[in-house]
Structure formats: structure tokens, C-alpha cells
Specification:
Layout: H1 2-18, E1 29-38, E2 50-55, E3 58-63, E4 74-79, E5 84-87, E6 89-94, H2 102-107, H3 110-126, E7 129-134, H4 140-147, E8 155-158, E9 162-164, H5 188-191, E10 195-197, H6 201-214, E11 219-222, H7 241-253, E12 258-264, H8 265-273, E13 278-284, H9 287-295, E14 299-302, H10 314-336, E15 341-343, H11 355-361, H12 369-384, E16 409-412, H13 426-429, E17 430-435, E18 438-442
Parallel strand pairs: 1-4, 1-5, 6-7, 7-8, 9-10, 11-12, 12-13, 13-14, 14-15
Antiparallel strand pairs: 1-2, 2-3, 5-16, 16-17, 17-18
Helix pairs in contact: 6-7, 9-10
Length: about 450
């Protein structure tokens, strides 16, 4: 009995760590933003001069009239002087633990990779990114430390390992390395807890439940080939319908959803038919399948990729060219058909965090600045909420400036609903950065 009890306590501690939160201070704290123009996450234009009161970690009052700070609170008053107050930015597809260089990752020095991930998380927050969805990597401890207030970083919706088949997009085994079922050991991706290489319904169930046990808010599968993988192409289909259904069933039993890495029409239709709710990428879709996503009420979480070269091989460069050539039509068709769109960067092997801001600014190729801002605030937050009871952040709303919402706020020079280039230089233009009611930057 003693062993059983100890085991239960250890499991409970791990689960609690995955969902730990900073405790509010015993005395209420308040921040009053005066004379700001608000982008609330959904509107096309800024409000007239407005005042916004934050109490503890939530937005308490929004009013054009003067607001009195509640008695008994420790208050900070910020004079906005007509600047823009807006929700913190969110990225629906990050790999915080993979922002090291490829050489650093292949060395497998976990201590070094953790240090890089913690620094990356800090830089993301200080560039205005207050929430991210991490789509492959061991970020559970990082998330726990951020939520506990031990280190700086955004809110994280973690997926854990990317579930992939043998020879699939997330199989980083070396050539002729035997699969486990043939007597081989763990691949380097599995050793680093970046991927789970599985085959068949039973192994997919185990991999899905493994991630859920660790605290995943959603599950990630690769159902097509990809760019960064060494051998497969974005046109390849991966996992059978029954294997995809296994992941969907296991995730649904825990109240959450499956999101799939998929580029091409066949893999995406197969995934949706199996019950998948979110498609990552999709740059090789045709217009008919984009309409199919709309009819099935499925999210398209996509990116504006660019063609990179080193450290990619010639084959990887060719594959990325295919993807980049398809994205213009996909964005156009998705907007025309009112598909549920989320946006992320999917950057890895690139330690420079400002690249997120730069890529966001480039979205005006397809949409207005206000539409792009809505997508990376309100819309992304709607996608995050699909995790249901696995959602680690439910005390307030995310992605909006509304009463009762989390106080994840940016005070910005200029009007980004008219000029999105403002977000590309956060060091200069983001004057105040607040997350969960705490100010992490103030250059006023």
C-alpha cells in the first residue's frame, strides 16, 4: 500500500506541475490605463479615448468616463496619451524548444537546449507574445515555471511530442536504424521528447495518452510529409484512417482535440473524416478542399512561409519552394470562403525571436492590418479554447480587451490597425507589456 500511495502522490505532483498557476497576492493590485484608444481584438478601428482598469490579473472596467481605483488596492496609473491599448499577441504554432540551431539540437545536450528554450520564452514575452500554442517539444516544465512566476514567458498550450509514423515527418531516425518493433531503440527525436514514432492503432493510443498524462492541452499528429524531414515530401499521406481515428478517440475521451500537420488534399480529407478539428499548414490545398474545411467547420492554422536555405539540404529547399508557391491561393480561398483561420510562425532552428513580429507584419499581403490583428488575438484564442477541460487558462478570456478578460495587454505607439509595420519593431513601439496583470516592460 505504501508504494501505491507514493506512486499516486508522484503522479499527482507531476500533473499539478503541468497545470500550476501563480497565486494572486493577498492584497489586490490595480493598474489604471488613462487616455488610451483600444483595439479590443475584434473591431476594425480604435475606440475614442478610453480608460481601462485592471484589478489583479483581470480587466475590471472599461469606460470613457474617469475610473476610480478601488480602495484598498495598490495602484499604478499609466497615462496612455492617446496610444493604442490592445491584447497581447498570440502564435498558434510555435516550437519553443526547437529554436536552437540544428547543430545544437543534434548534439542532444538537454541542459543547453533547455537554457535556449527558457531564453526564447523570455524574448517572446518581451516582444509582445503573451500566449502561444507549442506544437512539438518538451515544454511542460517551462510552462509550469512560467505559470508559477519563476521565469518570464508567454502562456503555453503544450502538445508534447509530435506523433508520427515510421518514415513519417517526425521520424528523425538515422538511415537503416531499426524501428523499436524490429529491436531498435529510441530515435534522437524520441530521446529528446520531440516526437513519438508509432505504428498501428495501439501505439497511437499509447502515444496520445502519454502526452495527455504529461499535461498536453491538445494532440499533434503528422498525417502528411513535410519540409524539414529528410525523406518524405509534403505530397505524401501518413497514418491510416484507423490510426488517425485512434488519436481522435483518445483525445476526445479527455475532452480535447487533435491537430494535424498536413499539406495536401488527400491527407487533409482523410484527417477531417477521422474527426480532426484543426489542420496545420495546408498550403497545397485546392479550392474545393478549402470549401470542404468551411463546410466541416474545421480550423485552418496556417503560416506565411518564406524560402530559407542553410541549414536545409537541396531536397528540403525544393520542398519548401513547393509549399511557398501554394500559400498565396490558400490564403485567398480561405478568406473568400470565411474559413476559420488561425495564424502561427512554425519557426525552428532560428533563435531570433523578433522574426515572429516581422512575419506578422507581412500578413498585409492578404488582409488588412485590423484583420491580421484580429487573427492573432481574438481568433487564435478561439482555437485555443477547443481544448475544453484541458484548457489551462479559464479564469478570464484571452485575446480581447473586454471586462472580465485576462489583463494580457500591449500599450503601443501609433495605430497598428492602420499600419501593421508597427508590430515589427516591438523594442521601439511596444511601450508597455503586461501579462496576467503584471507589467514586464514599461518605457514611458
Amino acid at each position: 500500500m505504501k508504494t501505491i500511495v507514493q506512486g499516486f502522490l508522484v503522479s499527482s505532483a507531476l500533473f499539478s506541475a503541468a497545470y500550476s498557476f501563480a497565486q494572486p497576492a493577498s492584497q489586490a493590485t490595480a493598474t489604471l490605463y488613462e487616455n488610451v484608444r483600444v483595439f479590443d481584438g475584434t473591431s476594425e478601428k480604435l475606440t475614442p479615448p478610453t480608460n481601462v482598469l485592471v484589478v489583479n490579473n483581470l480587466i475590471k472596467t472599461i469606460s470613457a468616463k474617469p475610473i476610480q481605483v478601488p480602495t484598498g488596492t495598490t495602484a499604478t496609473v499609466i497615462s496612455g496619451d492617446g496610444r493604442t491599448l490592445m491584447p497581447g499577441l498570440s502564435d498558434a504554432h510555435t516550437h519553443i524548444w526547437l529554436t536552437a540551431t540544428m547543430d545544437e539540437i543534434l548534439k542532444g545536450d538537454v541542459k543547453q537546449l533547455n537554457a535556449i528554450a527558457y531564453q526564447t520564452a523570455k524574448e517572446m514575452l518581451l516582444n509582445g507574445w503573451t500566449t502561444v500554442r507549442d506544437m512539438a517539444g518538451p515544454v511542460f516544465q517551462l510552462k509550469s515555471d512560467i505559470d508559477a512566476g519563476k521565469v518570464l514567458g508567454p502562456r503555453i498550450y503544450p502538445s508534447g511530442t509530435m506523433i508520427t509514423q515510421t518514415s513519417g515527418h517526425g521520424d528523425f531516425s538515422f538511415p537503416e536504424e531499426l524501428p523499436r518493433s524490429f529491436g531498435g531503440g529510441l530515435s534522437i527525436g524520441e530521446k529528446l521528447r520531440v516526437s513519438s514514432v508509432v505504428d498501428g492503432r495501439a501505439q497511437v493510443l499509447t502515444a496520445t495518452r502519454f502526452n495527455l498524462r504529461n499535461g498536453a492541452s491538445q494532440i499533434k499528429l503528422a498525417t502528411s510529409g513535410g519540409v524539414s524531414s529528410a525523406d518524405d515530401t509534403p505530397t505524401v499521406q501518413e497514418f491510416t484512417s484507423d490510426e488517425i481515428k485512434a488519436a481522435v478517440e483518445a483525445a476526445s475521451d479527455f475532452g480535447t482535440y487533435v491537430s494535424v500537420h498536413a499539406y495536401n488534399t488527400t491527407s487533409i480529407r482523410r484527417s477531417v473524416e477521422a474527426g480532426v478539428k484543426v489542420i496545420e499548414h495546408g498550403q497545397l490545398l485546392d479550392e474545393e478542399t478549402v470549401k470542404y474545411l468551411k463546410n466541416k467547420d474545421v480550423w485552418l492554422s496556417t503560416q506565411n512561409f518564406e524560402e530559407f536555405h542553410p541549414p536545409y539540404t537541396p531536397f528540403q529547399i525544393y520542398k519548401e519552394h513547393q509549399v511557398v508557391m501554394g500559400e498565396n491561393n490558400v490564403f485567398k480561398w480561405a478568406l473568400q470562403n470565411n474559413v476559420k483561420l488561425a495564424w502561427g510562425t512554425d519557426f525552428f532552428f532560428q533563435p531570433d525571436g523578433v522574426v515572429q513580429n516581422i512575419q506578422l507584419a507581412k500578413m498585409t499581403k492578404w488582409m488588412t492590418p485590423a484583420q491580421a490583428l484580429k487573427m492573432v488575438t481574438h481568433d487564435n484564442a478561439q482555437l485555443f479554447a477547443l481544448s475544453g477541460p484541458r484548457n489551462p487558462y479559464t479564469a478570464g478570456k484571452l485575446g480581447v480587451v473586454k471586462e472580465g478578460a485576462y489583463a494580457d495587454l500591449l500599450l503601443v505607439d501609433g495605430d497598428p490597425t492602420q499600419n501593421l509595420d508597427i508590430v515589427a519593431d516591438p523594442a521601439k513601439n511596444f511601450r508597455v507589456i503586461m501579462k496576467d496583470g503584471k507589467i514586464y516592460k514599461n518605457t514611458l
